[in-house]
Design brief:
Layout (H helix, E strand, L loop, with lengths): L3 H6 L17 H11 L4 E3 L1 H14 L4 E6 L11 H12 L3 E6 L21 H15 L8 E5 L1 H4 L3 H9 L4 H4 L3 H8 L6 H17 L3 E5 L3 H13 L6 E5 L25 H9 L3 H11 L4 H12 L4 H16 L2 H15 L9 E4 L4 E2 H7 L6 H9 L3 E3 L2 E2 L6 E2 L2 E7 L3 E7 L1
Parallel strand pairs: 2-3, 2-5, 3-4, 5-6, 7-13
Antiparallel strand pairs: 1-6, 8-11, 9-10, 9-12, 12-13
Helix pairs in contact: 2-3, 10-11, 12-15, 12-16, 13-15, 15-16, 17-18
Length: 424
């Protein structure tokens, strides 16, 4: 088995100089730098990235910008699109973006932020999720200008000898500087040896792709820096790293997550997406504008000044909701979603309702709400009844012991959840 460096050179990727030369910084370069910095948490090292931009501007050679995503779940929510939006902004500047699907690293399991070993996925799960991931990511990226790669291309051929040679390039001491590893070690929580391979293999991806910039969330900083160091080990110009903030979900506290049910999925129906956007707090709205909107920073600042001067914050929120809904659906769907939201706000029932067929009449209200997927549990349903948040055929109910007989009902939970339930 050859050294990993030999395999990388065999990939016949464009050559990069070993160090960043000095190129003139003009207005176009400064504008590109401003786009890079918008909303980001860290850009390291900024001086190196400025020179990479200057070199690209002077030579006309696009920079190679990498985003790696492990297909650990089949669907993407708006939190995932924060880094995708940044990729699209850099793509629109003319740079080459690489959407790297971590089909190999998914089998290891990313330990980032974990207090226990993450179970690896099966090959079938990875392939299914990867197809869905890219299809959904293409709603943000320009597919015609996106390079799709799978890290199994260079990781599978390494074999045991190549993996050992790669591992010799990084020390355990450096690996233990990683915060989650340190905490687990001090707490006596087991760390499997294979977990050390994850940041190493993610870093090797940057070597294989000769990446100029790698993007990720703030929880990926350590992994991104490993890539930078490995590139230097292999005689390449080290990549810069750009981390984006983690987006809080609808609760305004926890990061957006399907497991916390505070997310907005990018394939949700337009009406649901629009209504959820309207539910975020006035304060969080501005972070959403920065990270999710493609409006210029000057436009956003002007809008914020109007709100500060007395304009209704809801006006700004509607603009954001329509922009995001249009991106993932179309303008007509966004207009219809706004009309639907206004109708609901007046107490109306939306034109289109999901139809749910249930058996077991007479059925307790808590069980009915759960089986109709209007709440996550029967106890949550009963709490909603107690709080006056449940309506049957437009009438608020307060009896937690209510049992519904066979029939068809329009059931509403809160302001946004509706279903036409046929109970038998």
């Amino acid at each position: 088995m050859s050294d990993p460096a030999d395999q990388v050179s065999a990939a016949k990727l464009p050559e990069r100089p070993a160090s960043v030369a000095k190129y003139p910084v003009n207005d176009a370069v400064r504008a590109a730098m401003a786009v890079s910095l918008r909303g980001c948490d860290e850009l390291l090292p900024q001086d190196d990235w400025l020179q990479k931009l200057a070199r690209s501007n002077a030579t006309g050679v696009p920079l190679r910008i990498k985003l790696g995503l492990d297909p650990t779940a089949p669907d993407i929510h708006l939190g995932h699109t924060v880094v995708l939006n940044k990729m699209r902004q850099l793509q629109d500047l003319g740079h080459q973006v690489i959407f790297l699907i971590g089909d190999f690293t998914s089998m290891i399991g990313d330990p980032s932020g974990r207090n226990a070993t993450r179970p690896p996925l099966t090959r079938e799960q990875i392939e299914s999720n990867a197809q869905t991931y890219y299809r959904q990511a293409s709603l943000v990226l320009d597919p015609s200008k996106t390079e799709i790669r799978y890290n199994s291309e260079w990781s599978d051929p390494l074999g045991a000898r190549g993996m050992i040679q790669l591992a010799s390039r990084y020390t355990i001491a450096r690996m233990m500087e990683r915060d989650d590893f340190t905490k687990r070690f001090k707490a006596g929580v087991p760390i499997s040896v294979h977990e050390f391979l994850y940041p190493l293999m993610q870093g090797y991806d940057s070597v294989a792709l000769k990446s100029d910039l790698e993007l990720g969330g703030t929880d990926q900083k350590f992994n991104l820096l490993v890539g930078r160091q490995l590139q230097a080990e292999y005689g390449q110009e080290p990549q810069c790293i750009l981390t984006m903030p983690l987006l809080e979900g609808l609760d305004g506290v926890e990061k957006m997550s399907k497991s916390k049910n505070n997310y907005i999925g990018i394939t949700e129906p337009a009406n649901s997406m629009f209504a959820k956007m309207l539910s975020i707090s006035d304060a969080l709205m501005w972070k959403y504008f920065t990270l999710l909107s493609f409006r210029s920073e000057a436009e956003i600042a002007a809008l914020k000044a109007e709100v500060d001067a007395g304009r209704n914050p809801k006006d700004a929120k509607v603009l954001l909701a329509k922009e995001v809904t249009t991106r993932f659906h179309d303008a007509a769907a966004a207009e219809a979603a706004e009309a639907d939201f206004q109708n609901r706000a007046k107490g109306g029932v939306p034109d289109e309702l999901p139809d749910v067929a249930l058996a077991g009449a007479p059925l307790g209200i808590g069980t009915l709400l759960k089986q109709a997927n209007l709440v996550t549990s029967g106890s949550e349903g009963l709490r909603m009844v107690e709080q006056g948040g449940v309506r049957i055929d437009g009438v608020a109910i307060s009896d937690k012991g209510l049992k519904l007989e066979a029939g068809t009902y329009v059931v509403q939970v809160g302001k946004r959840k509706f279903a036409r339930v046929t109970l038998r």
